[in-house]
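Figure-free illustration: sequence to structure, shown twice.
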Amino acid sequence: MQLTVYKNIALSKMPQYKDYLFLPFTDDTNGITSYAGGRYIDLRDGDFNNNTLVLDFNKAYNPYCAFGAGYACPKPPVENKLALSIEAGEKLFAGDKKH
């Protein structure tokens, strides 16, 4: 599979974040057993080997907007919609209304 990974250019100018990457995605669990707006995985440049990455979906987490209305979160792009159910990672929590 191929997914789009993002790098925050401004953040990457800080030495401690120079190799940070961001992977927003959605899958068939969204709105059912996981947050409807998708989930995120944080990565680093060194996680790639020859432009290939083995993802650990146990590290998938809900964006801040899943926890409160005061946050605006990036929406995962259409090309990062996985046509399968990722049962690993953070799920819905007791206060979630399945946005």
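We now fold a second protein in the same way, so the two outputs can be compared directly.
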Amino acid sequence: MVDDQEPEGNPPGSRFAAMKIPAYRRLWWGGIFIFLASQTQQVARGWLAYELTESNSALGGVIFGFGVSLLIATPFSGVVADRFPKRRIMILAQGVMGLAALGIALAVATDVIEYWMLVAASVVQGSGMSMLGPSRLAMTADLVERHALTNAIFLSNASVQATRVFGPVVAGLLIAVEPVGIGGVYFLGSALALMSVISAAGLPPGNPRGSSGRTPFGDMADGISYVRKRPELTRLLTIGVLVVMFGFPHVTFLPGLIQDIYELDAWALGVLTGSAAIGAVSSSLFLANVATKRLTTLQFQAGVTFAVWLAVFAAVPNYWAGVVIMIAVGGASSAYQAMNNSQALVIADVEYHGRVQSLLMLAFSGFGLMALPMGLLADAAGIRETMVLMAVLVGICVLLGEAWRRRQAQPDIPDL
């Protein structure tokens, strides 16, 4: 980003405009590798945790460990992304995530795996993801012009969601192949993480833009103060955290839904998760060249759609009908989150991008923390009933966010 005077809107035919930038393409492919590693492990982790414990609470416990590490590390990761070269942070974060995957792979291969190891690996990988997210998105803002930032974010989101199409399907099939199994999925994840490290090594340094002269805690406090002074940014961060926290934990309980309700095997989990990703990829590509001024309205529509279809998914009795409905759930939830990120970064000044993104990522710590009580509720009241409650809470949050927006006299989002 080199110029603050940007043309209005995205230029016509710019759906893949950011892909013309070589460094952005390398960043994009690196994202494919690391998120494919994450998605394959997510299926393997959930399946293994349920096999070891036969408990929805245990599924929630694994994600709870992920959420705790995000909650602790994420505020500092935004400061780090604004103070140190982003390339270095990305290499370190992806390397740590790869080592955690390798550790579980070896534990499974040597038949010493225990549930606590999954929780520990989840904590380590959550820490790595907390460092990766802000630095990766801030690097995106460094590589593209401000008027193309929305396009770059949606293309990045499309790459992430594409891994949700292939990752779960591949993982489900590999788990079912006896010579490969869960251990093989984790070995694959560690190899993909290594490929992401190699890809990141070829990126520009992503050096910070000057020094604030403050301590890390001072930078963190400054970032929070910066957000509080911008009403629309505050609204986006607050409602975005609540929607992710209450709605996204539904993915945690899909293994239990598959085994207990539908009485199917790992392949069915891969197909169901992949269908959500197909919807997410489709929505990301559709919105890649949408005008910034339309994002607010479209985000509200996506939030309502997410809530409605999640409730329908919870109630549908047939597996294949659930697969179709999950396409809508995945598309709406992904669109909501991506538009939230895009609007927040368009509003924020460049030197605050890392800290703003770290606050956005706190939503996923909330998602992780909420997974445990939701898991306890699912064991006590049922998975379907718990998912309906999630849908209701998402709908309430989206409506509150819209009411909050209408009370604000002037929006903060520039008409790019």
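Summary for the second example: Residues 1-13 have pLDDT under 50 and may be disordered.
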